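2024-03-11 09:14:02 DEBUG pipeline.ingest accepted 1 chain
2024-03-11 09:14:02 DEBUG pipeline.ingest length=299
2024-03-11 09:14:03 DEBUG pipeline.predict start
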Amino acid sequence: MAWIKRNLFFVIGGLLALGLLGAAGFYNYKGWSHNTAAFNQLNDIYRTLRSVTSQKPSPGNDKINNIEAAKAQERQMRDWMRQAADYFQPIAPIPSMDTKAVSSQEFAEALRRTIDQLQREADTASVILPPKYSFSFEAERQLVKFATGSLGALAVQLGEVKTISGILFEAHVNSLDGIQRVRVSDDDASGPQADYFDDRSVTNNLAVLTPYQITFRSFSPDIAQVLAGFASSPHGFIVKSISVQPAGALAATSPEAPAPPPASVPAVTPGKGGLQTVLNEQLLRVTLVVEVVKLLPQK
């Protein structure tokens, strides 16, 4: 105690120095903790930046903003889609479904009326049809009540079949063997196999693609007219495949169908100065697979 009294100033100075050392240590510890947290946060940001910039596509850098470029390209694509919609106008279902659901009676009447109309148009265009042809709706033609939930799809298909038939008639093909569609109703199970195409509609992010297989007989200029008709249509048609072969004698797949007159071949007679060149036009049997493109509503 006496020593403390004699060295009071030394003791007080030592305590003050010890306190200052403690405060300095605590300050250094706080600074080290803060620096460590900041360093770890910087590393996290750096890792995130590396991950983002390594993505395909990259968001860009200070000179190129790929995100804004992608948004601009998306706007251009949507503008193009709006303009292209003029060439993908929907085909009206038969009967119309604008205001209400189709009833069995309405569809039955529309189906018979449409088949009669198509048969008359074929006769006017001198297109030979199989006897009593129903344009792929043989299973539904005599029905008055239809499978539940099928009327909407059948009405859409009837409108599409009518449009396809109109293109063939306008091209004045020699004969129509048949139009085959995909099955959309339980009633289709009882129809003749020749009415159906073993495929299905496909839906992607932009549209619904519905295939049809068409078989007809004609000469080569008429085939060109058919392809031009699909290409120039305001509706979305895509010709997926075409098969052409000599037609043979019959104009339709049914053995009872009348045979068309044989193609006339001019007589080859030698002329002055050498042989005369003539065109030997042959009747051809054509099978087309055509998809109807129906754009989905834009979000």
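2024-03-11 09:14:41 DEBUG pipeline.report The longest strand covers residues 207-218.
2024-03-11 09:14:41 DEBUG pipeline.predict end
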